[in-house]
Design goal:
74% of the residues lie in helices and 0% in strands. The chain is built from 8 helices and no strands. Helix 1 runs antiparallel to helix 2, helix 2 runs antiparallel to helix 6 and helix 5 runs antiparallel to helix 6. The two termini are 34 Å apart.
Length: 231
């Protein structure tokens, strides 16, 4: 009951912290235990912002990769169409593409960029500056480099998101450990003051709700004896 699932959202952890901090502060026997919860509540925003920034940066990086990929594909297919138009003897297309252009653009983006730079651009430069296709050299080279840069930025963003995720996991583990140690302290107070064990449960939202459900009398089966009404 005191352990919040690691998969639970940060807002769930915050709600549990807020509940326990307020509950402890409301009971003079437990009020001295509030400080650690106040500290965790104060640290929540920093962890949340780092996680949010990590998710946002990856989302934006994915969008840029998608656009750069589409731009390179469109330019490559336009280039292929121009090659066909200038391929008098039918051998020029094979010089640039070892497979159909429509399949070429379905390669993994990094592989496509590599082939664009080291095959398409290289072969275009061999044609000479006066060849009608040569203008595609700079265009394809720039598009491929822009796509590669977007992939590198996405990898960087994913690395930063993983770092943020690790920080979130550590923070959640710390919160759960605090809940366990606090529960142990509350049980000591309950024993010293002659309170029932359930007293300690009231300081935890999830445990308190579960206890309320468990304490509720089960409904009698149809035809069974019904409890006497409360006077």
């Amino acid at each position: 009951m005191r352990q919040i699932p690691q998969s639970a959202a940060l807002l769930t952890f915050l709600d549990e912290l807020e509940y326990t901090e307020a509950a402890l502060a409301a009971d003079t026997d437990a009020a001295d235990l509030t400080t650690a919860f106040e500290d965790e509540i104060g640290g929540w925003e920093k962890v949340f912002k780092k996680e949010r920034a990590g998710r946002r940066d990856v989302t934006r990086a994915e969008a840029v990769v998608a656009v750069r990929n589409a731009q390179l594909d469109s330019l490559t297919l336009r280039f292929a169409a121009n090659v066909k138009a200038n391929d008098g003897n039918g051998t020029l297309l094979a010089r640039f593409f070892s497979t159909a252009p429509s399949r070429f653009v379905r390669k993994g983006l990094r592989d496509q960029c590599d082939k664009t730079v080291h095959v398409l651009v290289t072969e275009l430069d061999k044609l000479g500056a006066n060849h009608p296709l040569h203008t595609f050299s700079k265009l394809l080279g720039a598009a491929a480099k822009a796509a590669l840069a977007s992939l590198d930025l996405r990898n960087q963003a994913k690395g930063q998101r993983q770092s943020a995720s690790n920080d979130v996991d550590e923070w959640k583990e710390g919160v759960n450990q605090l809940r366990l140690t606090t529960y142990a302290e509350l049980l000591k107070i309950a024993a010293a003051k002659g309170y029932p064990k359930a007293w300690a449960d009231t300081f935890f939202a999830s445990a308190s709700a579960s206890a309320a459900v468990e304490d509720a009398a089960p409904a009698p089966a149809d035809g069974g004896p019904k409890p006497a009404p409360t006077p």
